Amino acid sequence: MSGPGIVAYLVLSSLLFGIGVAGVLLRRSPLIVLLALEIMLNASNLALVVFSRHWANGDGQIFALTVMVVAASEAVIGLGLIVAMSRRKLPLDVDKMAHMKG
Amino acid sequence: MLVANLAGDIIVWFVWIAAAFTLLGSGMAVVLFQNPFYSALALILNLGSLAVLYLLLQAEFVAAAQVLVYAGAIVVLFLFVIAYLGGRADAPWAGSGRVRFIATAVATIAISAEIVVAVAIEADEGLATSQEISSSFGSPREIGELFLSNHLLAFEVTSIVLFIAAVGAAVLGAGARRRDAGATTTTEDTTS
User: Fold this and answer.
1) B76 vs A: CB within 8 A
2) Could you give the ipTM of this predicted complex?
3) Domain spanning B1-86: CATH 3.40.50.360
C-alpha cells in the first residue's frame, strides 16, 4: 500500500469520531446533532474501508455501503421528526425535549 | 521505475495529508458553526475529502456512492430542512451538566484508548504489511458480485430498511399536516 499505513487512517478515523461525539454532546440544535451523527458514521465507515483494503477483503466495503444506507434512513427519519417538531411549535432544542425522561 | 515509484509515493502522501487536514478541519467546522446552513456546507467538504481517502484506498465504488448518496441526497435534504426552518434552527451551545461532563470524559478515554491500541499494534508490526490486491478490487463489478452472492440477505434487508424509512417519513409528514388542520379550530395543546 503506497502512502501512509493503516494506523494513520485509524488515528484519523478515531479523531473524526471524536469530533462527532463532541458535536452531539456540545450542541443543542437537533440539526447539528444529526450532522454530527453523520460524521460519526463516516468515521466508522473509514475504518471499515481501511481494514477492507488491509486484508484485501471486499466484505468491509459491503459493510460500509450498508452503513451508508442506514445513515440515509436515519437522516430521513430524523429530519422528518425535526419538521414535525417545528410544525407543532415545539422548541428546537434537545435539552428541552425531556418528556420521556424517567 | 524507482523514480516514478518515488514520485507516485510523494503525490499519494501529499494528497493524503491535504485530504486528512480538510477532513478534520471541516469536521470541526460542522460542530463549531453557529449557523446550521454553514455546518451543512462544511459537511459537504468533509464528505468530499473522505471520498478522496476512499479513492486512495482503492474503494472506487464506495467513493462514488459516498458522493452520490451523501453530498447528492442527504446534504441536499438537510439544506432543504434548514431553509424550511429558517432562523429557528439556530441553537446556542449546550449548557454544562454533570451527566454531560461524565459522558465527555468517557468518550475521550474511549477514543484515546483506540488510538493507543492502534499505535501499539503498529509498534508490534501486527498491521505492517497489507495484503496484495488485484486491480479490480473495489470496482463496481466486484462489489456487485459480493452483494448478490455472499451478502444477498444484507442486500434484501437494505431494501426493507429503505422502504420502512420512506413510509416513516411519509407518516410523520402526513400526521403533522392533519394536526395542523386540526390546530386551526382547536386550541393549542402542545406548548409545555
Assistant:
1) no
2) 0.89
3) no
